[in-house]
């Protein structure tokens, strides 16, 4: 497989390369792609060095697959050019997610919607991915009516500048670059992305709209509050899930434990529950604090954690490519 990674020098692009290597994706030729200013820079993959090329150079090489993590504007402009030469693009930005002509895919949930004709495939928002992986088996069993989600999201979701801001603040450096309008160390910021006219942030609306599309069910009501916290390693979510049908807690745990890509850590008697440090550099979604909501019928509370750079971005994209290859939809 001739594989291009567009945005190869960025935070998610670097993790994409790492995940491709770890999962032994059959890369016969790697094409690292970045902006003009990074052209010629060397990156290492599986012990070999590769020179970064420009987008135009990469398109001329006609890769089989292009994993994009270079921002929405780049994706809007360049993804169709790759698709035009026969490349299958898996895009990590928000550019194509709600486009009705494009598939929005989490392999454990809806990989079956993909066909050989899908040349631009959208990778969902990080916080949505981990949530729907945990929701899918429960929706199949009990039919979800409504989800209330509150997120606790890592600074790595913003990028290198945010990580630098947090580390600088921890060292007492107050005049460094600021990714946020406020300090993040010893603080939480209840705003991720811009505010929209309805009072929700763009991140919150992504979770609401993307969940319906991925699950293939517009009847699922979702409301979200997304919060940035001074943490590395992964995003955490508190989920309150109302079902049409009643459930048994033992069965819920069994369903989740049997789900591909889910690990249940749920032993409150021994203070065992998922935390970002458990998910860091892992590909699975971790769930715990599984309990009945005693204030409302047929309602479950659950805690969900995943590495936002891996399952929330890079790993999910590579898993889409793996599925396409296994079904002979590429290559």
Structural summary, described in words:
It catalyses: L-aspartate 4-semialdehyde + phosphate + NADP(+) = 4-phospho-L-aspartate + NADPH + H(+). InterPro entries: Asp_semialdehyde_DH (IPR012080), Asp_semialdehyde_DH_beta (IPR005986), NAD(P)-bd_dom_sf (IPR036291), Semialdehyde_DH_NAD-bd (IPR000534), Semialdhyde_DH_dimer_dom (IPR012280). GO terms for molecular function: aspartate-semialdehyde dehydrogenase activity; NAD binding; NADP binding; protein dimerization activity. Belongs to the aspartate-semialdehyde dehydrogenase family. The structure is a single chain. The protein has 331 residues and is α/β, with parallel strands linked by helices. 32% of the residues lie in helices and 22% in strands. The protein folds into two domains: 136 residues, Rossmann fold; 182 residues, 2-Layer Sandwich (Dihydrodipicolinate Reductase, domain 2). A six-stranded parallel β-sheet has the order 2-1-5-6-8-7, sandwiched between helices. The longest helix is centred in the middle third of the chain and has 17 residues. The radius of gyration is 20 Å and the shape is globular. The mean pLDDT is 97.
């Amino acid at each position: 497989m001739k594989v291009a990674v567009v945005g190869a020098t960025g935070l998610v692009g670097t993790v994409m390369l790492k995940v491709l290597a770890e999962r032994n994706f059959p890369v016969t030729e790697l094409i690292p792609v970045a902006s003009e200013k990074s052209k010629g820079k060397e990156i290492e993959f599986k012990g070999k060095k590769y020179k970064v090329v420009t987008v135009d150079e990469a398109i001329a090489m006609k890769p089989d697959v292009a994993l994009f993590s270079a921002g929405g504007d780049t994706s809007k402009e360049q993804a169709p050019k790759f698709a035009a030469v026969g490349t299958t693009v898996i895009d990590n930005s928000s550019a194509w997610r709600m486009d009705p002509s494009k598939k929005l895919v989490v392999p454990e949930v809806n990989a079956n919607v993909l066909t050989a004709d899908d040349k631009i495939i959208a990778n969902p928002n990080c916080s949505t991915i981990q949530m729907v992986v945990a929701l899918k088996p429960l929706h199949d069993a009990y039919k979800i009516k409504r989800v209330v989600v509150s997120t606790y999201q890592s600074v790595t979701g913003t990028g290198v500048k945010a990580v630098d801001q947090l580390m600088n603040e921890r060292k007492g450096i107050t005049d460094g670059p600021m990714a946020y309008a406020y300090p993040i160390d010893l603080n939480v910021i209840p705003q991720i992305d811009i505010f929209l006219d309805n009072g929700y942030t763009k991140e919150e609306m992504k979770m609401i709209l993307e969940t319906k599309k991925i699950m293939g069910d517009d009847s699922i009501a979702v409301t979200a509050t997304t919060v940035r916290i001074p943490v590395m390693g992964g995003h955490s979510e508190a989920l309150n899930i109302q079902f049409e049908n009643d459930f048994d807690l033992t069965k819920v745990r069994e369903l989740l434990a049997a789900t591909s890509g889910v690990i249940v850590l749920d032993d409150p008697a021994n203070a065992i529950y998922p935390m970002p440090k458990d998910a860091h550099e892992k590909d699975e979604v971790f769930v715990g604090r599984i309990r009945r909501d005693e204030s409302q019928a047929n309602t479950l509370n659950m805690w969900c954690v995943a590495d936002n750079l891996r399952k929330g971005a890079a790993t999910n994209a590579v898993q889409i490519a793996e599925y396409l290859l296994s079904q002979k939809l590429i290559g």
